[in-house]
Amino acid sequence: MNLPEAIASPVVSPTRRVPPGVFTSFRRLVRRHPIGALGGLIVVLVILMAIFAPWVATYDPAAQASKRLLQPSADHFMGTDELGRDVFSRVVFASRTSLYVGVLSVSLALALGVTTGVLAGYIGGKFDSVLVAFMDILFAFPTLVLAIVITGLLGPSLTNAMLAIGVVYSPTFARVARSSVLTVKNETYIEAAHVVGGRQGHIILRHVLPNIMAPLVVMATLSLSLAILAEAGLSFLGLGTQPPDAAWGLMLSQGRKFMEIAPGLAIFPGLAIMITVLAFNFLGDGLRDVLDPRLRE
Length: 297
Prior knowledge:
By secondary structure, the chain is an all-alpha fold. Helices cover 69% and strands 0% of the residues. It has one domain: MetI-like (MetI-like fold), CATH 1.10.3720. The protein is elongated. The model is unreliable at 5-19 (pLDDT under 50).
C-alpha cells in the first residue's frame, strides 16, 4: 500500500477549528495511543543522543582506540571494528548523519511537494493535469531505485544522497497536498474569502495551508523513517556517506564481511536503524490519531 493510502483521510470540517496546544496534543497522544507516545519518547532520546554525541560517546569515532575486532566489554560496550575503532561511539555519531539526512531531505520533499501540490489543486486546469501525469510517471519507479539512479548520476556523497531522497519523496507530498486542497478549496470560508476580495496568495497561506497541515505533518513523520532507511541503503551501497564518516548503513556494509567472527559490527547498527525507524512509524501512527479531526470529539 502506498504511503498516501496509509494515512487516514484528513481533511478539515467546513467550520474552522483552533488546533489544540502542544501539551493538549501530547496528553491526547499518551491517552489514545501509548505506542505512539513510546515512539515519540524514543525519537526524543535519539535526537538527544545525536545532539550530545561528543558527551555520550566514549571515544573519538574515527580514532583507532584499541585492538581490532574486540568483543563487547566494559571498555568497549559494542566492541571494536576491523580498524580498532569503538563501535558504540560510531553508532552514536552515526545518529547525527541519519537525522541530518532525514530532516533535510524530508524538508526538501515537503517544500517541493507541498508547493506544487497546492498550486496544482488550487489552480487546476492543464497545470494540474501535467503534474498528475508527472507524478504517475515517478510513482512507476521504486523510490530506492530512483534514488540510486539520481545519486549515481550526481556522484556518491552525503549531500547528493540527501538531494536524491528529497526529490524521490516530493511527489508523495504533492499528491496528498493536492487531494487535500481539492477538498477544502470549495468550503464556505474559502468562498467567503474570495467574496471579500482576498488575494489568491493570501487565501492559500491564510486559509488553505492551515487546513491541510494535519495530513502533511503525519506524512512528514512517516517519511522521516523512510528517508533514514533510504540513506542507510544508499550508504550500504557506497553511494551515501563516505569513509571515514560514521553512518549506520555504511557500518552495516563494512561489518557484513566479519559476521562470523564479530557479528556485532552488523548487528548493532542494524538494531539502531530498526529501533529508530519503528519509533518514527509509531509516532506517525499516534499523530494520525491525534490530528485526525474525526477522532478529536
